[in-house]
Every structure is written in structure tokens, then in C-alpha cells.
Amino acid sequence: MWGKLLLSCVLVCALPVAVVSSERDGEQATHQKITMGKSGPVCTKQGRKCVFNATCEDNRCRCPAGQRGQAEIECVNKREHLCYIAGDPHIRAFGKALATIALPCRFRATRFVTKNVASHSGHGTCSFEVYATNELLRGRYVVRSVHISVGISDPASMTHTAVEVYKTVEYNVNDTEIYNYQARTIHRDSIWGSSKDTLDGVTIVPSFDEVNNFATLDIPACGTRIKYRAFDRRRAKHQKQLPGLTIQAPQQATWYAGLGDYPFGACGVPSDPRSLYNDRAAQLNLTNDNTAVLYDILAEEPDQKDNRLAGKCSRSFNLFKSSTQQIDDINYCGFLLTDPRVGRCIEEEAARLPIDIFNACLAMRQNAGYGCFALRRAARICGPLEDWTGPASGDINCPRLLVSTTEPPAPESFVF
Ligand SMILES: *[C@@H]1O[C@H](CO)[C@@H](O)[C@H](O)[C@H]1NC(C)=O
Ligand SMILES: *[C@@H]1O[C@H](CO)[C@@H](O)[C@H](O)[C@H]1NC(C)=O
Ligand SMILES: *[C@@H]1O[C@H](CO)[C@@H](O)[C@H](O)[C@H]1NC(C)=O
What we know:
The protein is an alpha+beta fold. The protein folds into two domains: 2-282, no CATH class; 309-406, no CATH class. It contains eight helices and 19 strands. It has helices at 276-284, 289-300, 310-322, 326-333, 335-338, 340-348, 354-365, 372-382, and strands at 7-15, 18-24, 27-33, 55-57, 60-62, 67-70, 74-77, 81-86, 90-92, 98-100, 106-115, 125-137, 140-153, 180-184, 197-199, 202-209, 214-219, 224-229, 244-249. The strands form four sheets. Strands 10-9-8-19-18-17-16-15 form an eight-stranded antiparallel beta sheet. Strands 3-2-14-1-13-12-11 form a seven-stranded mixed beta sheet. Strand 6 and strand 7 (74-77) form a beta hairpin. It starts with 6 loop residues before the first strand and ends in a 34-residue tail after the last helix.
């Protein structure tokens, strides 16, 4: 079912405007578009704005009548389903459970199937798969890019048009601009945001919402809308417009067990309880909902394509896989990723990436010396923090054989 992906696209935020690339006859063209929309009224106590059509009451953004959602980022019709991964980023699942996704890796947000109301046979379906890639910023994570695949299938039709949308690895991005989206679709002449595309009779509308600063993918026949708003790097602390990814699925959407439900999709399914991630933590004997999400992403080993830190994520996946005490290891080392104060200290005071120190912690638990000196140094500098629940620097004995503090270079050639 998932093999037949007819369209896939990636939205990449380099910095808070709009760059669109397309390939025509093998030639690559870049289209830049800047959106600096003001969005709706300033509303919340943190000074956040609501989306344009929402209202502000008692410092809370409210969706228009007949709609529900998180009016700082997306409102949907009452019967539709919504999952969003926004801010630090916190995930609000389809079943409304909340957790924080604290690692700089690519993970699957969701995978579901909908009816295609435009199909000639009346039996057509649309399949969606959405990945998000996080990036570390001041001890917290934000969604940096989104990869969407859409497949249109119809048992009555043996033909299909192949469409692919993807990003190139490095863009030339102007780091001083906000809402600088880089999106690229490859399908004959189509350019993200410039035209509608039709796949087997299904109209696909990639566009930019210049009022609210979203890159949007709308597929009306499949009742689905996916939006992405970049992090505004000019305001590291106070984001006036909540950045993140939103996924609206229609009432008739189906999530297949073992494919699209939790943990195969971080968003879960609409019938999940609000305690989804807490229940998972209890089931696995993990300390909390955030470590449960971390555990499940490590166990899933999602493809890290287009992630700058792919090597570090793969290293985490490998160290996790080779552990004989995965639950204990995540309970012991997980805070290095999930605690924002510790993360910020590691990043700013110890000048290391939390994922490196997390990997060193996992390695230490397997008596491997990788990253040992960096871990000991981080423990010395950040250990005094109340939130530091890991080893004291004095208890970390780095193997004598390791005479230098340098780490093994290529993660691909990583061996114990
Ligand atoms: C606001 O709502 C109107 C009516 O539903 C709609 O046409 C318009 O596009 C919306 N504007 C924005 C910026 O979302
Ligand atoms: C980035 O964009 C800003 C605003 O458009 C412009 O003033 C600045 O010169 C640009 N910087 C670079 C390095 O292109
Ligand atoms: C869960 O953890 C507690 C305390 O660490 C331990 O006593 C208990 O045996 C564990 N349960 C399972 C099922 O592993």
C-alpha cells in the first residue's frame, strides 16, 4: 500500500519567507518568496498571535464558531481530526495526548488512508505519510523540516502518474529572514505554491499562506490539509507566531494497526486516550511520557534522510539496539535529551550537542569508551544542575586506553 507513493514533498525551513525550487527538463530553478504576514491579534500572555480568523478571549486564542483546534496555529471543522507538533516541539496527538519530542532526529508523525471523493470508481483512496525532522535550538527542539508523501490509488484504474517532491541537501538560505520556506516539488512543470497539480483526478494544492506564514499542502478530495510554519530565528525566545507542523485528517480517515497507530505514527489515532504517552511509559516501565516517545523513536529507527545530524541519530539507534537493558538505559540517560535546562547547559556551557552526550551515556552503560571524556566534562559542568540525574563526573572512569578526548570520526564506521 505504501509502496505506491505518487507524490511526496518536503518543506524545509532554513530560516524564518519562501524559496521554491523546481526542476524543469533536468534544469533546476529556484524561486524565492518571502512571507512576513502579521497573522491575527496578539493574544496570549507570552505575546503570541492567533491565526488570522481566530479571536482572542482572556489571553487565549479561540477558533471561529464551528471549529476547534489550537488557534495559534490551526483550526479545523469540529468533526475533522487534528494532530500538531509545535513549539518545543510538543506533540498534541489526534487523541489529544501531549508529550515533548526531544531529539534532533527525523520521525514519522503519521500515516493514514482516506477516501478519495474525486475517484471515478467510487473506491479510490489517498494514502498519507508525514515525517518531521527536529533541530536543536537553545536546549530545545523545533521542527525544521517536513516531508510529506501522498499516494492516490484506485482499484478501477491501473494507471498512475508518478510525482515526487523533495528537497536538496543544502540550500543557500539567508539566515536573517523569517519564514523562509524552501519547498520543492518535482512533477513536470509544477513548482510549490505556483500551481495546482492533478494526480489521477485529485487536485493537489501546494501554497503559501502569506497572512499566517504557512507552507500548506491542501488535498480537498482527500479531506486533508498539512501546514508548516517555520521557527523565527530573529526571536530565539519569544516566538510571536507558534512554529510547527499541523495535520488535519478527515472524519473518514483510517489508521491501520501496526502501520499508522502509535508508536508507528507519533500522532496516534483519534480514539487514543489523552493518557496515550503516559500509558506507554507505564507499560514499558519508563519514567515519563517524553522518555516513552524517545524510546519508541529509537526503537523504530526512522530513516534519517535529509537530516544534517543523521549520523548522530543513527549512532543513537545503534547504541539503543545493542543495549541489553534498553529501559534502564533510557531511564538513566534520557534526561540528557528530554530536560531542556540540561540540554541548554550542555549546548551553551559545555559546548556539546546533547545527543552526543546522550550517546556517550548509552555507550558508558555498555562499557564502551566512546564520548567518555565529553560526558565527564558535561557532568562536571552541568552536574550541579538540579535536573541532572545522571552520573557524577567523579564516578565516570574513562578507559585508560583512550588517550585523547576526540571522538571516533565517522558515525558510519562506528564500532565498539
Ligand atoms: C478567513 O476566513 C475566511 C472565511 O472562511 C476565508 O475565506 C479566509 O481565507 C480566511 N483567511 C485566512 C487568512 O485564513
Ligand atoms: C538577507 O536578507 C536581508 C533582507 O532581505 C538583506 O538585507 C540581507 O542583505 C540578506 N543577506 C544576505 C547574506 O544575503
Ligand atoms: C519497573 O521498574 C521498577 C523500579 O525500577 C522495578 O521494581 C520493576 O520490577 C520494573 N517492572 C518491570 C515489569 O520491569
